[in-house]
Design brief:
There is one protein chain. The protein has one domain. It is 79% helix and 0% strand. It has seven helices and no strands. It is globular. 23% of the residues are buried.
Length: 180
């Protein structure tokens, strides 16, 4: 377990890449479990459990749906398992560190909490770019653009499928009545 944590922390510190992820089933299951637990806790802070589970599944599907074609087109299909495990593990570590910031924002929004979340989002973007750089063997600038595209698409799809809680059907209907 300690080896797993150290490896994932080194990945998110940009010292390791997806090629350093072990291919063993036990390691992959541990990373998947860590990803699921951390993200369920994070998502449950502002959603019901059932919604959090659905968001988790959609997030994983989006990650696979974006990463597989990139690796396939670039001729690096064989790197998919390690790349996916690296993405899931990095997400678990980063979201673990996001838990206190998000909890503070849910309690009482503050400039410090917003700044912390901004830094975490930038860190997440950089780590995804780093993982794609190693997996695709492309320059960092190119993979940062891919990572940004992934994060934007993922965010838009998640928001379309799971609208923010404050957007009740009544509010949406009132807004559409005003615009017509």
């Amino acid at each position: 377990m300690k080896r797993l944590v150290v490896l994932l922390v080194e990945l998110t510190a940009l010292r390791k890449g997806p090629q350093d992820m072990p291919t063993g089933l036990a390691f992959q299951q541990s990373v998947l479990l860590a990803y699921a637990l951390v993200n369920l806790v994070l998502l449950q802070m502002s959603n019901a459990w059932s919604t959090a589970v659905m968001q988790l599944l959609l997030d994983c599907l989006l990650m696979v749906s974006f990463t597989w074609p990139l690796l396939y087109v670039s001729g690096h299909r064989a790197r998919f398992p390690q790349t996916l495990i690296a993405l899931l593990g990095a997400d678990a570590v980063i979201n673990f560190f996001a838990l206190p910031a998000l909890a503070s924002l849910n309690q009482e929004p503050s400039e410090l909490g917003v700044f912390a979340m901004l830094l975490i989002m930038l860190w997440h973007w950089l780590v995804i770019g780093h993982i794609y750089r190693h997996a695709l063997e492309r320059p960092l600038l190119f993979t940062l653009i891919l990572a940004f595209l992934y994060l934007m698409l993922s965010s838009q799809i998640m928001e379309a499928v799971f609208p923010p809680l404050n957007m009740t059907p009544e509010i949406i209907e009132q807004a559409s009545d005003v615009t017509t």
